[in-house]
Amino acid sequence: MQHLLLAAVLVSIAGAAGAEEILGFNAAESEAQRSLEADFDAQLSKQDMDAWLKKFSVRPHHVGSTAGKENAMLIADMFRSWGYDVEIAEYEILLPTPITRELELVAPSSFTASLEEDSLPEDASTSVRDELLPPYNAFSIDGDVEAELVFVNYGRPEDYEILERHGIDVVGKIAIAKYGKTWRGIKPKLAGEKGAIATIIYSDPADDGYGAGDVYPKGPFKHASAVQRGSVMDMPTYPGDVLTPGIGATKRAKRLRIKDAETITKIPVLPISERDALPLLAAMEGAVVPPEWRGGFPITYHLGPGPARVHLKVKFNWETVTAYNVIATLKGSDFPDEWVIRGNHHDGWNHGAADPLSGLVALLAEARSVAELAKAGHAPKRTIIYAAWDAEEPGLIGSTEWVEHHARDLKKHAVAYLNTDGNSRGFISIGGSHVLERFFNQIMADVRDPRMDISLQDRRRALLKLNAKTDREKDEARNRADLRIYPLGSGSDYTPFLQHLGIASANMGFSGEGAGGSYHTLYDTYEHYSTWRDPGLVYGEVLAQVAGRATLRLANAPRLPFEFKGLADNIRLYITELEELADKRRKDIELRNALIDDGTYAAALDPTKTLGPPKREESVPHFNFAPLKNAMDRLQNAADAYHETVAAGAAPSPEVNEMLYSSERLLTRDAGLRGRTWYKHHIYAPGFYTGYGVKTIPGVREAIEQREYDAVQEQVELAARVIDRMSQRIESIVAMEAN
User: Distance (Å, rounded) from C-alpha 481 to C-alpha 473?
Assistant: First the structure.
């Protein structure tokens, strides 16, 4: 009865406030949908979510562990008890686990790294170590090497340019890099390309340690012994099982030989704590690092090489383990062959309270509430599939194998994929396909922030008005009707759906006020999370409200809530950014070359320093972006026409809805991106040298960034073609509905 009263009050408030129609619903349908969502909210329980979080995180539960399998089976039982049809989708995957990890400073002094994390009396979970994986980087090759150290800052391309100006290279050396600024797998990838024989990655206290604030357990930041585990698989080439690219890793799948798997690193890699890093860095000499490279240790940072010399040895057990994906299905009442897919992974590197369980328990609360609605006579019109993925941490493996295994059916039936992956508190952050931008702005407007009692959209807008990185973003926060959702790179389970198959996707979570320090360490425990990240799972409940609305609206909308004006506006922005990138790079190189030619650089150098002038570079040619601009104009006109069609109130047909949800596929090409064919999407992709970070219109952008100027024009033409294909689809829908 209380649930019904609450629902009535909320609907009354919404009606009194003149809430706008929900995209894809008319006025009466919108009122009914909001009433349903009020019932949905009333059945969410923060207390249950908190209990589930504590239960699932009691033991380390990586893929292949006993606890990992037990959690998967328990999750499956929960879905079954709520009325879902449940399948355990098993895949046989390669997972290297450490046998040997050794790191010693052998000159000019001696030090042996402990490579261990401390148990803390204030956190009982840190003493629970059954099957705990020690700190390591998955998919590092085996190695036994000894060499001098070179400090490479964050190990990015621009860092190596600075080293080159200092006359320093890493050929035959061991690179030591800070965690941060780019995905960890880029650091050994680039170091290996530059000639290094190994990479050490450490967490600097300036980034996430005592330089940022009080450390755990006094505060949330990284304990001195904490080590960030994580995969260094070359995911920008392809994610998933390294031995079965492009196909599901079933028992009968044809596999590559390990030596032929191109996503395994070329050099050995080892992560270490700040405590183990300090003696290594303190023993280094050579030029003093640039000011912006300095970290938080009370030492002078030096570039090397040497005289610090280290011996590093790592060896792995290259074993096959079973990944258990839990797939729970609630059949749609009206359109059972149209699938809305909602996922969060269940495996962790350790106890995994924040990553991934805080997101998983929100998904479970959402799924239970949706099931209760169905039992009360409100079954979703489209089929909803909930997925608890395994093996995300080693390289998005569980989701990728399932997507590759079921690619044909997913291309035909999948409406959208909605992802979460851990949660904190503060401000909503949503990334995804821009056909869903208006859709998510309405959801942000409808859900209230529990601390400020304003909409999530208003709170996010206030943050951007004050703290956005650029003047353009601040201006848009004030004047643009919808907040932009960010384009997706990689780093979670949306990747195979969006960038391999072209299924419209989104990723959601809260952040900004729950400070870090536990990521992929022993300290990602229930105790840490419930103290510092989201006490009482207040924002966990709000995440369930946001994701639940997205799931239900996609499942129930008479007209699928895809909208193309936001897509057109964002693509126009990306084209402008490409022009600005080329122009800025051209001007910078021309100025630098002129300063080199007239001796300005040489005259300005301090003769006591080793820093040399940059090398002369080939000037950036003038590219013809007209094909992209023409395609953009066509897309804008098509988007405007579709908007007018929807505003006229035309009733959609099943055929129109199929044309809508399959439209994202048109932004892909079967041939994939140049040099990495697994990635098919030509608007969004993870950067080849950023990993998680997105590259928009990636073929063009990366050809410019990587100075492959001869390839730019072809990539412009390819991108223009996929945009034209999208425009043609929208035009076809408009023409069909006009008749």
Answer: 13
Task: Give the chain's domains with CATH numbers.
Answer: 94-317 (3.50.30.30), 565-738 (1.20.930.40)
Q: Is the peptide bond before 96 cis (omega within 30 degrees of 0)?
A: no
Q: Residue 381: beta bridge partners?
A: none
Is omega for the bond preceding 356 within 30 degrees of 0, making it cis? Answer: yes
Q: Residue 690 has what pLDDT?
A: 87
d(CA 353, CA 55) in angstroms, rounded, equals: 10
What secondary structure letter does DSSP report for 448? Answer: B
Please give the helix or strand (H or E) that residue 282 lies within, else none.
helix 274-282
State residue 11's pLDDT score: 39
Residue pLDDT, tens place only, 351-402: 999 999 999 999 999 999 999 999 999 999 999 999 999 999 999 999 999 9
- pLDDT over 60 (residue 687): yes
**Rounded Cα distance, 366 and 340, in Å:** 14
- Spatial neighbors of 291 by CB under 8 A, at least 6 apart, are none
Write the CA distances from 488 to 10, 25, 388, 693, integer angstroms: 33, 27, 20, 8
pLDDT digits (tens, 9 = 90+) for 452-506: 999 999 999 999 999 999 999 999 999 999 999 999 999 999 999 999 999 999 9
Instruction: Please name the residue that has the structure tokens 């755990």.
Output: 216
Cβ-based neighbours of 637, under 8 Å, separated by 6 or more: 727
8 A C-beta contact, residue 667 and residue 719: no
Distance between CA 695 and CA 563 in Å, rounded? 22
Which structure tokens are listed for 278? 């300090």
Residue bearing tokens 């949306």: 494
The DSSP bridge partners found for residue 199 are 175, 269
Helix (H) or strand (E) holding 629: helix 626-647
* Half-sphere exposure of residue 701: CA atoms within 13 angstroms, side-chain side: 21
Token pair belonging to 207: 């980034």
d(CA 555, CA 415): 9
Write down the pTM of the prediction.
0.95
Q: Apex CA 334: angle with CA 328 and CA 338, to 5°?
A: 55
CA distance between the termini of the chain: 48
- The CA distance from 507 to 494, in Å, is 7
Nearest-angstrom CA–CA distance, 273 and 297: 13
What residue type is 586 in one-letter code? R
pLDDT at 18: 56
Is the separation of the CB atoms in 349 and 62 below 8 Å?
yes
Mean pLDDT of 404-424: 98
Of the candidates 264, 204, 200, the residue with the CA atom closest to the CA atom of residue 232: 264
Nearest-angstrom CA–CA distance, 518 and 534: 13
Asked if 489 contacts 690 with a C-beta cutoff of 8 angstroms, the reply is yes
